[in-house]
Amino acid sequence: MAATAAVLRVPTSAVATSLQNTVRSSDVLQQTITPPFGSIVLSSRIQQLNTLTQSSSFVGDKPSENRMAGCARAVATTEGLSAAAEGRGDETDSNGALDGTQFLRPHLLSLAPYTPIEPFEILSARLGRRPEDIVKLDANENPYGPPPEVLEALGSMQFPNIYPDPESRRLREALAKDTGVGAEHLLVGCGADELIDLIMRCTLDPGDKIVDCPPTFTMYAFDADVNNAEVVTVSRKPDFSLDVPGIVDAVEKHNPKIVFLTSPNNPDGSVIREEDLVTILKLPVLVVLDEAYIEFSDEPSRAGWVRTHSNLIVLRTFSKRAGLAGLRVGFGAFPLSLVKYLWRAKQPYNVSVAAEVAACAALSNSAYLEDVKNALVKERERLFGLLQDVPFLKPYPSAANFILCDVKETHSAKEIKDALAKQGVMVRHYQKPQLKNFVRISVGKPEQTDLLMKALQSIP
Fold this sequence. Notes:
The chain has 460 residues and is of the alpha/beta class. It folds into 2 domains: 113 residues, Aspartate Aminotransferase, domain 1, CATH 3.90.1150.10; 218 residues, Type I PLP-dependent aspartate aminotransferase-like (Major domain) (Aspartate Aminotransferase, domain 2). It is 39% helix and 15% strand. The strands form 4 sheets. Strands 4-10-9-8-7-5-6 form a 7-stranded mixed sheet, with helices on both faces. A 4-stranded antiparallel sheet has the order 11-12-15-14, with helices on one face. Strands 1-2 form a two-stranded antiparallel sheet. Helix 2 packs across helix 4. The protein starts with 6 loop residues before the first strand and ends with a helix. Pfam families: Aminotran_1_2 (PF00155). Its cofactor is pyridoxal 5'-phosphate. Its EC number is 2.6.1.9. It comes from Klebsormidium nitens. This is histidinol-phosphate transaminase.
């Protein structure tokens, strides 16, 4: 429907007050729609906010802050507020009868965007430091980078002007040798993130449900929202282990299509016990096991289990082990009964020539990959010991390439993150219902650990 309501120019504070009264969530709305300037344009279509909050699908009685923020953001976007806040200025359409939002799927109007980590060049400009002077420990990237064969292969790459192999055959054969899983079970994606979305697009109808076990990787809930699915939350225990009885109960009560599991789990680094995985696999549900960090643990990959479990998918990535986060290469092991249909639905040229060349080159030097893994595991243990001596942090044991720390009440996780950033050290902080006042620190090189500890010691 076209935007025909009268437009009023009002102070920013009045906009915030009006929206606060509409949904009674001042904290969320202050963060969502208060831009850094004096006045913004608002129409009487603010009433849409009530409709959005009432029509969204929620598990339980109270909508999450994420969805509430999305509702507020949707109204702001409708009136061009996000455009102004992003510095794009006023936008007008020569066809006054049209409003771009009318072409969107309705549930996307209340979708809160995913919040990624800032890239190097943005951090460099914001902090006023050269990229090489930033200790980046906020995104679990591999600080050693890929094997030297990768840069050599990219430098001599042939035929970048030709579309890539839509079946990534060379890479899948190399992966079959590396994992022991037949190439017919393997599907490669533009990062494992693409495969998460592909799985949902192929299995979920609007209104279908998934089980999510937070705190965990937030892409599962995000992609469920994108695909108009509902999220059944089964929170982890205080020690971050899975609530297996809770998962069993959720499957029986809500009849979800998919359960998403991560081992080692991000952000705490805990692993799933084999007996727990077996219990969950006995349920009438598709189990997606994300093993992005499996190489850093003592646990074997369960990728080979797809040969005997028709309801299991195992996801892996080149971002952590092989240092190829910037090239976006992930893969999954699938039961044959499922994978043939995902082949039909995936984008034909989803893995670039450069990505496949780099991944194959990385796999050609398994000794380098093993040495880097061992170096990171050794440094993880050293870092854990050092963090135990920091009086305001409580680190949790990890089987991944990061360590989660509970920040004691004397300090704020956000303040710690900001204090470290001023010294060029970047870490991730959390302030969520299941993860209040925590920081996550990626494992770096020894010299990066030394700089981190020096910066932490300067915090009173």
